[in-house]
Amino acid sequence: MFDLQRLDGAKFVEFAGWELPLHFGSILEEAKAVRSSCGMFDVSHMGRIGVQERKRVSVNVSESVQVSSVAEKLDWLVTMDVKNMAVGQVRYGFLCNERGGIIDDLTVARLGGSEFLLVVNASRREVDFAWMRQHLPADVELVDRTFETAMIAVQGPDALEVVDSLVDSETKPSNLKRFRVGEFSLLGIKCLVSRTGYTGEDGVEIVCPADSANRIWSALRSKGVRPCGLGARDILRLEAGMCLYGHDLDEDTTPAEADLMRFVAMDKTFIGRDAIEEQLRNGVRRKRVGLRLFSRTTPREGTIVLGNGQPIGKVTSGVFSPHLNTAIAMAYVETGWAKIGQQVQVLVRDKPQDAEIVPMPFLPLPSRKVAH
After folding, report:
1. For residue 344, what are the β-bridge partners?
2. Could you tell me which of 114, 154, 197, 346 has the fewest CB atoms within 10 Å of its CB?
3. pTM of the predicted protein model
């Protein structure tokens, strides 16, 4: 899709070893297009890792036992409840280390009884693969499908109608519930389509063979779908209160500190559970919050947050929101300050800017509820 994007005027940047479009002319206009109609993103850089049972010459156990085994072994690695997922269901959660720190945030899709697809961050793909290989038994096979497939996210109020028009059957992606995945034929191309995304809007993510991506991208473009880059994606995900790994999440941050315990099944055993439980028992010292500034001045990562003139935390992500017409940010602050309505200041270019701690998502988005 690189050549097609270049013809569309994309400005490219390097990201996690990939050349990706930053924008196609206007970051703000691309963000507005997704909120008002429809936009598409090339997200092929996201890692796609298959998890399945390793094929054997002879099997002496029943299929039901095999299915349980694969799901339960994967269940031990991630914070979400995998073993009770239905086929076709997708869940969001975390890989954690023994300290409860987040190795990566990811989605797990159950494609069959003993077959799963994990979508992970580009910068963490090799780390995740190595961690899972280390902690899964040899009879569970990991397959990196990142380079044999491509991935296109189509997001916005009109996204489902557009993608439906490319499907060669009566059953359409719009029939999927939120956080569900199914197999569809788009333009005669066998694809996985999941009703998920990273913008807060409704829409889908399409996984297709890499050599068919240009056809699907061109077809979407012919339907009037606006191509969008990383700049718009950052605005949209932040407005939706969604974290970016390496900025808002890392191996020294736990789900409890990130205020994301709703994606952690504490009623099961997984790597890092004991550390998280201890932290919840003792209380976290810092917490992720949303900040709304009273100006357009945008705080960047590392910007100091002040309470009564004293440092109480740091910004991890910040953008100007065209839909709120003001700057917004995520930050980690001392727990005592992490109250909705709390007035703070953000030190931008050595000048204190007034801000307020507000709920996330920052916008009243139609798709902000995540299925479990």
Report:
1. 355
2. 114
3. 0.92
Count of the separate structural domains present in the chain = 3
Reported as a single tens digit per residue, the pLDDT across 340-354 is 999 999 999 889 999
CA angle (156, 243, 128) in 5-degree steps = 110
Query: What tokens appear for 78 in the block?
Result: 């991630």
Of all residues in the chain, the percent with pLDDT exceeding 90 is 90
DSSP alpha helix (H) spans, 91-227: 125-135, 159-164, 213-222
Question: Which of 76, 111, 144 is the C-terminal boundary of a domain?
Answer: 144
For residue 262, give the nearest of 371, 363, 364 by alpha carbon: 371
Rounded Cα gap, residues 262 and 256, in angstroms: 9
Residue 56: its pLDDT value, please?
A: 61
Residue with tokens 């950052």: 234
Residue pair 257/249 in contact (Cβ under 8 Å)? The answer is no
Dmax (CA) of the chain: 70
Domain that holds residue 7: 2-46+147-239
CATH of residue 330: 2.40.30.110
Select from 89, 361, 156 the least CA-distant residue to 243.
Answer: 361
